[in-house]
Each structure stands twice: as structure tokens, then as C-alpha cells.
Amino acid sequence: MPNEDKFDDNKQEQSLGHEESVDVGKLENYNGMGMKLMEKMGYKGGGLGKNEQGILNPIEAKLRDKYSGLGFNISNETTTPLPSLETEKKSEPGEGIQPVVGRKKRRRYKNITSMLDRVQEENALALDSLAQYFRHMHKRYVEYYKSCKLACVAYSYALPLFIRVFQGLDPLRNPSHGLELVSEWKTLLLGDDSFGIQVISSPYTHLVSEVVLPAVRKSGINTWQARDPEPMLRFLDSWKKLLPSSVLATILDTIVMPKLLSAVDTWEPHRETIPIHTWVHPWLPLLGHKMEREGIYQIVRFKLSNALGTWHPSDGYAYAILSPWKALFDSDSWQQLIYRYIVPKLKVVLRDDFQVNPRSQNLAQFYWVMNWASAIPIHLMVDIMQIFFTKWLTVLYHWLCSNPNFGEVRKWYLDWKELIPKELLANESIRYKLHCGLCMMNQAVECMEVVQPCLKENISYIRASEQRKFETQQKAAASSQQQATASLGGAVNAYGVNEISVKELIEAYTQDHGLLFKPKSGRMHNGHEIYTFGNVSIIIDSLNQKVYAQNAETWSLETLEQLLELQNKFLSKRR
């Protein structure tokens, strides 16, 4: 530790005006730094002792003004030699402030240069002892540490020592190496925020760029693999408070991103067992938007599409690699991917392989479908579940008609309800299907005729109140126009229940399929208001119970299922 008494300002007050001359040659040993510091005071080679009292050349006002005291007169100091102590004693009060301030300043400069000379003489210093010298100067001479840019001096001494410390270092294997040492020097090289850590030209930023960055670059390029992100992430987390933003950006842009792009480009989902999101998603906090701009998401989406072409619902790997990307892909891209590659296969497995059997139930296919409930958009999932409920309600109807044990029926119903995910139970259409089953159970318990709920031809369901009962299926119309009329409105009267309007049917249908249904403000065609059915424009002829959809330049008569097909075709074209 430096000898503080040697540079004690109070002790040197006793010898003001009797200072020994400075050895100029010794100052030059510090690569000219000592002379540069003296030149800041106007020193041109003369001594500072009593034999050569005062400053030989004037100090420029711009250099002295920052440290001047109250009442300081620059013109007097630059033209008049410093008075002796004897003269000061005879001066009036206040007249001796100027020379005292000048002598204190010179004395502190001299102390600093003496310490720098000592550092120069002890050229084998280690980083910890070197830090002690500069810590002492930083604490004792705060303003001078800034004005003389001693942080730059500290950097010039410390850099060669730091290079030796970090030589041969693999920071990805040992991220804590040198961490405390750099942290200790951070304050000394920033100089109490005279340089900011984010300023590229600061000594601290230069040190990290010259010492730490090369080691990270060498290890990152030569040995680090993007499929194993932990070593690089562990290093960045350990050094996050010490890495200037420019250095962090360099690591991410020149090491991490090129490695990630290369790894994603060579990723083969058919052969690799580790899901890609496990080594891409950890970079989202640092590179989320940049990965999207660089096309990583697009590459992943393309490769997932190819992999899903041969996928079977029994293979859970597809869900494992696909579902984590739902939040990253835009909603349209995600829906198109699901609609094209997932929904058709889930429908097939429910329609062809799944059976409802109260005596011996196999739930494998049902679980395959339910596993996707959180990943598939709700309107597509509701559409899939129509296949399940058609089978489920039919089996329940026949069971209730065979004088069953109602306790078993009740348990069977509750068990099935428990198997349906909460996000599906929150949907009105799903709740309605379960309610239909409950109504049949109540009819059987009350010894009433059990009425099987039926769906009208070409309509997935009708939203109706609990009082509405469905007894028979409407007969198909002879022509396509009669069929459309029946499916949209005429069927309601065939059941002997209160009529509901075509608009109400469409509103219920779109709601259960998660589609938007609302009028287009101010848009009319042939006196009819134009509505939006998802992305399809329609008009409703309430008088004739018909619905027309806009197709190019014409309007064509459509059923509800045909409208849904038009909506799905629109989504397919946008992929």
C-alpha cells in the first residue's frame, strides 16, 4: 500500500515556499507522463523551489479556470511570480488566497507524479498492488483523477498485466475466471463516471474489448455449439454487470447469431431427438426480435411443415416440437399450420379409430386429440369435437333407452366431463353438447320419452334454449336452393319449436367456431346489409331465409358449412 504520510498535504503545508527542485529526468521515465502533468501547470523546465520561485510560463485561463477559488485573479497569477511566505504574512486578509491555491495545486500534482514515478520504478507490480496505488489516488485526489484522466494512465499500466491473466483462458468453461479482478478495476477505469460503461471510448470498455472479448470470441467460434447454449448463456449471465453494451452486442452479432443461423439451417426434425426450441428459445430475451428479422422463425416454420407431412396423432413428438412456437409465430401463420397439418389428421382418428363404449372404453385416440387442446385455436378445436359429440350423444341415447343403471350413467357422464380440458369447457358449444346429454339423462330418470338431439343437415348445431327439443332430422331438399333454405331456416319449424331467425343461427354458428360476425358499417348490396363472416362478406335475405356470399364479382347462395369452407380456403391462401 502506498505510504500516505509521504504525500500528506498537511505536513507539506509547513514547507510551502521551500520546496526542493524536481528531478526532470525522473519524470521522463514515466513515458513523459510526469512532464505532461507538469505542463498542465505551465512547467517548461525550470525548478519549483525557492531558487526558481513561481511558474516560468503563464497558464492558459481555460486550464486554470476550472480549479479557481472565489476572487481568483488570473491576470495577476500569470504575470507575477508567487510571493514568499514572508510576503504572505504581511499581506492584507484575502490577498494570499491566490498563491496558496496555486501552491496546493502544484503540490498535489507533484504528489501524483511522484506516485506515478514509484509505479514506474516498481515495474513488476501485480494487478492487486497496482490497483492499490490508483485506488489511493482515486480516493485522495478525486478532481485530479478526472482532470488528469488518470483512468487512462491506469489502463496503460493494467492492460499488459490483464492480457497475461487472461492468456489461454476459456471463459465458457470457467466464466468466473478474472471476474472479481475486472470488477475491482471497473471503478478505477471509469473514474467515478467520468467515463460511462456504455461509452465505447472509455478505458474500461477498451480493457474489456482487448482482454475479455478475444477470449470469448476464440472459444465461441472454435468450440461452442449452438445446440448447447448453456456455456455461453452462463458466461453472459456471470458478466452481465461488467460487459459494456458494445461488447455484448459484438458477442451476440458476431458469435451467437451466426452460430444459431447455421444450426437452425442444418436442423433435421426427422432425425434429431432434441426439440429445437430447447436451444433457440433461451436466446429470446437477448435476440428475440433479431432472430425474427434474420428469418430464423421462418426457417423453423418451413421445416416443421415438412416434418408434419408424415406425422401421425399417436406420435407425441410433433406436439413437443410444435407447441412451444405458438407464442412466437404470428396468429395467421400458426392457424394455417395447424389447419393444414394437424386438424385433418385429428379428425380422421376421431372419425375412423375412436369408439365410445361404456363397457370397455379405449381412451388412447381421445387423449391424442385432447393433447392439442391448448395449441389449436378454439374454433378449430370445437369443429373437431363435433365428431366426438356425435358419437358420444348417440351412444348415450341408446344406453338410456335400454333401462340402464342411472348411477353408472351419471358416473360415466361426470367422468367424460372431467376428461375435457377447461379451455374447451369454457366454450358455449361444448357446454351445449354436454347439456344435451344431461337433458336426455333427466328425461330417462323422469320416465319421459328420451329424445335424441339431432343436427340439421349441413349445419353443425343450432343454438337453442333448454326448452327446445330436437326430434327428427329435416328431410333433404330436392334442389340445392331448397336444401339451403331448409338448412338455414325452414328446419326450425319442422321441429315444432319457436322460430329463430337466420341471423341468430349464423351468429351462434360463428360464435362457436370462433369467427367474427358483424355488419360492415355503411355497406349495402341490393338493399341488404353486408356482414362479415370471418373474412367472408355475406348478405342475409331474411324474407326468403337465404344467405349469399361474395365470390369475386358475384354473390352465390351458400349453406353454413359452405361458408365455413370459404373461410378456411381464405386462410389457406394466406399461408
TrEMBL record:
<feature type="region of interest" description="Disordered">
    <location>
        <begin position="78"/>
        <end position="98"/>
    </location>
</feature>
<dbReference type="InterPro" id="IPR045211">
    <property type="entry name" value="TFP11/STIP/Ntr1"/>
</dbReference>
<keyword id="KW-0238">DNA-binding</keyword>
<dbReference type="GO" id="GO:0003677">
    <property type="term" value="F:DNA binding"/>
</dbReference>
<dbReference type="Pfam" id="PF07842">
    <property type="entry name" value="GCFC"/>
</dbReference>
<feature type="compositionally biased region" description="Basic and acidic residues">
    <location>
        <begin position="1"/>
        <end position="26"/>
    </location>
</feature>
<feature type="region of interest" description="Disordered">
    <location>
        <begin position="1"/>
        <end position="28"/>
    </location>
</feature>
<dbReference type="InterPro" id="IPR022783">
    <property type="entry name" value="GCFC_dom"/>
</dbReference>
<protein>
    <submittedName>
        <fullName>Putative G-patch domain, GC-rich sequence DNA-binding factor domain-containing protein</fullName>
    </submittedName>
</protein>
<dbReference type="GO" id="GO:0000390">
    <property type="term" value="P:spliceosomal complex disassembly"/>
</dbReference>
<dbReference type="Pfam" id="PF01585">
    <property type="entry name" value="G-patch"/>
</dbReference>
<dbReference type="InterPro" id="IPR000467">
    <property type="entry name" value="G_patch_dom"/>
</dbReference>
<comment type="similarity">
    <text>Belongs to the TFP11/STIP family.</text>
</comment>
<feature type="domain" description="G-patch">
    <location>
        <begin position="30"/>
        <end position="75"/>
    </location>
</feature>
